[in-house]
Request: fold
Amino acid sequence: MAERTSKQGRYLYAVVPGPLERTFDFTGLNDSKVYTISNGRVAAIVSDIPDDRIRPERRHLAAQQGVLKRLVEEMPGLLPMSFGIIADGPKTIKKILSQNQEALVRQLKRVVGKVEMGLRVSWDVPNIFEYFVNTHPELQSARDRFLGPQRNPSQEDKIELGRLFDRLLQEDRENFSDRVERVLSRSCREVKRNKCRQEHEVMNLACLVPREALEVFEKDVFSAANLFDNNYSFDYSGPWAPHNFVTLDLKL
Reply:
C-alpha cells in the first residue's frame, strides 16, 4: 500500500499479525477509512486523523469500539490499543512496530484464535445487608448484639458491624468465584477477576475463550448458574477484543 502524503496523524486501534496490506470496508473516527500499516511480522490498524489529540467523547469511544468489534469478526487475533493513541504518520507507526515487534508477537501468540467474554454475577436481592444477615448466622448475631432494641449502638459498634459484613462479603466473592472458575476451566484458557464496582456484585470475570469453544462457554455459564439459587443473576457478554489479556508497555 502506498504511504499517504497527508501530514495528518494516524489513530491506532489495534495491532494484528502481519505483514498485512488492507483497506477495510468500514470507517473509524470521523468516518475515516480504516487501513493497515505493516512492518515485519505485525501490522497496525489505523485511520487518518487531523489532530494530535482527541477527546474521550461518547461518539469517539463508540467509533473506536465499532472498529474493534469488526476487527474481532474479521481478524484471527488482535491487540486492542487504549483510547487516544495517535502517531505522527506512517514512519512513526512503522518505528513503533519495529521497536516493539518481539513483545507484540508474544502477545499476539497469547490471544490469536481467542476472544474475550465477560461474565458478571450479582446478588439479585432487595437489600444485600439484610440478605447477608439472614444467610450468615455470625452477622445476624452481631447485628442483634450491636443493634438490638435495648442497645444504643456507638459509632465503634457500627464500624465493627460494617467490617464484619465486608469480610463476609469478600469471603463469599472469593469462594463463589472459585466455584464458577472451576466450571469455566473447560472452555476458558484464562480467567481474570476484575474489581467489583458495586456492593451487590459477586464477581466480574473476563474470560479468554478460543473461538471454537464459544458454544461450550455458554453451556458452562448455564452449568455454573445451576449451582446457585434464584438470589443470584448471571449475565455474560461478548465476544470482545481481549482488552483484559493485553499487557503492553510500548516504546513510543
Observations:
- Helices lie at 58-74, 90-99, 101-111, 128-135, 137-147, 155-184, 214-225.
- The chain is about 40% helix and 25% strand.
- The CA atoms of residues 176 and 202 lie 8 Å apart.
